[in-house]
């Protein structure tokens, strides 16, 4: 697989695609490597977009995944501002948006996901309505918020993106209201205690989170929007940020006839149902050995780890994908670190440290099996949780919750 | 302006100059092998682990609590460890030598 004339094309130049390109070069691939992306910017970090980057005045050049020079040094060709229209598997070519065709020997699909825009009446006429997924989105949001007098922002959706964006916009001087359809924020991913914590955190910062708010329609009047909910309430917004989830970019793969489930189905080496085509990152539906089920993940960890696995596999080294997922979120002065997947938990243990700053951790169990840990301002709990989950250690729940037990890893085991 | 030297695990020496930002960002720009900085510099991934010598540690200051916590169970960590996303580039650290751990 190291012939000089082989071409590897990567569709999608975000965390997964870029890391893959460099990993493949590092693995000794001598052929061409091309990265194609519809975004005109040099590839950048996405997680900070809703966090520190939104509140800064930085250009995206401060936030690049790799310097421009690195691509030259790695002999990696960037084809930016171009999208792939179709994958033609029989002759192994791609048709691009500039009507050209390109051939590949190996193809990597790293198309990620896009913001989901719900079908709401009046949404298309709303003024200053944005989703937050790209650097251009952030520029547009910053401009809109900075240029309007009242700075009333309604954020649709109380997931991580919505909460982080709200915290950042508040820092920028906006008056922010979050409208969440479910009865609590982060309901899909955390225990009620974590939802309560974030609800209170935002309230303390004068960001109001309203739950059970099912938005039905939007009316634009001049530069103002009126956001209406099914319970009859309405909210005035100079800007609206939509953060109600994502849709996976599977269409290219689907149209090419690759196997699709809740994402592009890949094996333990990130190969799709076509041996010449791999898929990595947010768009993949993959098997997680630790949790013994197929999952799809939106995370940097998954993007980076799958990039390495796929690159190794393409040069003939088959390392199976086997990792514990991890995530993070920054809101105000709160640092949340998450390890593991809490889905399926039936009991939690909360440990709150005594001290001046807020510091606690929520440990999710299914019976006695530790599934996940949410650590708030508590990196120690995060690393202990990581180790305990990886090694399937049995945790002494009484000691864990007992503040008289010193918080040390060895003290937590049964 | 600070002149900073990175020594990678395969003994490559890379000298860079910078005025601001974090040491991790500088290392990424210079494509220093072993500094991944996956989380973008918010001390969440521990993929920018470096060692300093004692004198240089005085220049940068010691590891913060969160760095120590992140590295607590890392077999490679020692008292000269830091996560370099948490080190600001400034004249105060001119001349330091960072040994990349991974």
Structure characterization notes:
The complex is a heterodimer of chains A (414) and B (102). Chain A has 414 residues and is of the alpha/beta class. Chain A has eleven helices and 27 strands. Chain A is 24% helix and 30% strand. In chain A, helix 1 packs parallel to helix 8 (300-314). Chain B has one domain: Beta-grasp domain (Ubiquitin-like (UB roll), Roll). The chains are: A alpha/beta (414), B alpha+beta (102). The interface between A and B is medium-sized, with 31 and 19 residues.
* Widest sheet, order of strands of chain B: 2-1-5-3-4
Broad CATH class of chain B: Alpha Beta
**Share of helical residues of chain A:** 10-25%
Number of distinct helices of chain B: 3
Structural class of chain B: alpha+beta
Number of helices of chain A: 11
Pfam families (chain A): Pyr_redox_2, Reductase_C
Cofactor (chain A): FAD
GO cellular component, one term (chain A): cytoplasm
GO molecular function (chain A): dioxygenase activity; oxidoreductase activity, acting on NAD(P)H
How are the SSEs ordered, and which strands pair?
The complex is a heterodimer of chains A (414) and B (102).
Chain A: E1 7-11, H1 15-26, E2 32-37, H2 52-55, H3 68-73, E3 76-80, E4 84-88, E5 93-96, E6 101-103, E7 106-109, E8 113-115, E9 129-131, H4 135-147, E10 152-156, H5 160-171, E11 175-179, H6 192-204, E12 208-210, E13 215-221, E14 224-229, E15 234-237, E16 239-242, E17 246-248, H7 251-255, E18 260-261, E19 263-265, E20 277-279, E21 284-288, E22 293-295, H8 300-314, E23 326-331, E24 334-340, E25 347-352, E26 360-366, E27 369-376, H9 379-390, H10 397-401, H11 409-412
Chain B: E1 2-7, E2 13-18, H1 23-29, E3 49-51, H2 54-60, H3 65-71, E4 81-83, E5 97-100
Parallel strand pairs in B: 1-5
Antiparallel strand pairs in B: 1-2, 3-4, 3-5
Name the features.
heterodimer; A: alpha/beta; FAD/NAD(P)-binding domain; Enolase-like, domain 1; 3 domains; five-stranded parallel β-sheet; B: 102 residues; five-stranded mixed β-sheet; 5 strands
């Amino acid at each position: 697989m190291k012939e000089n004339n082989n071409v590897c094309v990567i569709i999608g130049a975000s965390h997964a695609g870029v890391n893959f390109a460099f990993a493949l070069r590092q693995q000794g691939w001598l052929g061409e490597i091309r990265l194609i992306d519809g975004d005109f910017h040099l590839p950048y970090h996405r997680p900070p977009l809703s966090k520190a980057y939104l509140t800064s005045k930085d250009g995206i050049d401060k936030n690049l995944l790799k310097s421009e020079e690195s691509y030259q040094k790695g002999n990696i060709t960037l084809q930016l501002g171009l999208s792939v229209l179709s994958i033609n598997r029989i002759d192994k070519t791609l048709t691009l948006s500039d009507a050209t065709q390109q051939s590949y020997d190996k193809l990597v699909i790293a198309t990620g996901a896009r913001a989901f825009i719900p079908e709401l009446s009046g949404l298309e006429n709303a003024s200053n309505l944005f989703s937050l997924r790209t650097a251009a989105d952030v520029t547009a949001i910053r401009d809109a918020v900075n240029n309007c007098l009242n700075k009333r922002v309604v954020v649709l959706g109380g997931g991580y993106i919505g909460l982080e964006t709200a915290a950042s916009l508040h820092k920028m001087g906006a008056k922010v209201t979050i409208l969440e359809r479910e009865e609590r924020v982060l309901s899909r991913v955390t225990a009620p205690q974590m939802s309560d914590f974030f609800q209170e955190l935002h309230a303390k910062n004068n960001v109001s989170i309203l739950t059970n708010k099912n938005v039905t329609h939007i009316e634009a009047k001049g530069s103002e929007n009126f956001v209406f909910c099914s319970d009859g309430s309405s909210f005035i917004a100079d800007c609206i940020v939509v953060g109600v989830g994502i849709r996976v970019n599977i269409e290219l793969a689907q149209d090419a006839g690759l196997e699709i489930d809740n994402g592009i189905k890949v094996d333990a080496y990130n190969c799709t149902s076509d041996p010449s085509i791999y898929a990595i990152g947010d768009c993949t539906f993959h098997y997680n050995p630790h949790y013994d089920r197929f999952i799809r993940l939106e995370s940097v960890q998954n993007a980076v780890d799958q990039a390495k696995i796929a690159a190794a596999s393409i040069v003939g080294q088959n390392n199976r994908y086997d990792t514990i997922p991890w995530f993070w979120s920054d809101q105000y002065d709160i640092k949340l670190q998450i390890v593991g997947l809490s889905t399926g938990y039936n009991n939690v243990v909360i440990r709150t440290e005594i001290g001046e700053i807020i510091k606690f951790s929520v440990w999710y169990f299914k019976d006695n099996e530790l599934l996940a840990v949410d650590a708030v301002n508590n990196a120690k709990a995060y690393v202990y949780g990581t180790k305990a989950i990886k090694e399937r250690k049995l945790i002494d729940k009484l000691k864990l919750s007992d503040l008289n037990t010193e918080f040390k890893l060895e003290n937590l085991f049964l | 302006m600070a002149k900073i030297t990175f020594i990678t695990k395969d003994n490559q020496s890379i000298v860079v100059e910078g005025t601001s930002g974090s040491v991790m960002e500088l290392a990424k720009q210079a494509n220093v092998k072993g500094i991944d900085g996956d989380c973008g510099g918010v001390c969440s991934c521990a993929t920018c682990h470096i060692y300093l010598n004692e004198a240089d540690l005085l220049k940068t200051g010691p590891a913060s609590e969160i760095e120590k916590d992140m590295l607590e169970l890392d077999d490679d960590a020692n008292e000269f460890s830091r996560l370099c996303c948490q080190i600001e580039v400034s004249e105060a650290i001119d001349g330091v030598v960072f040994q990349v751990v991974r």
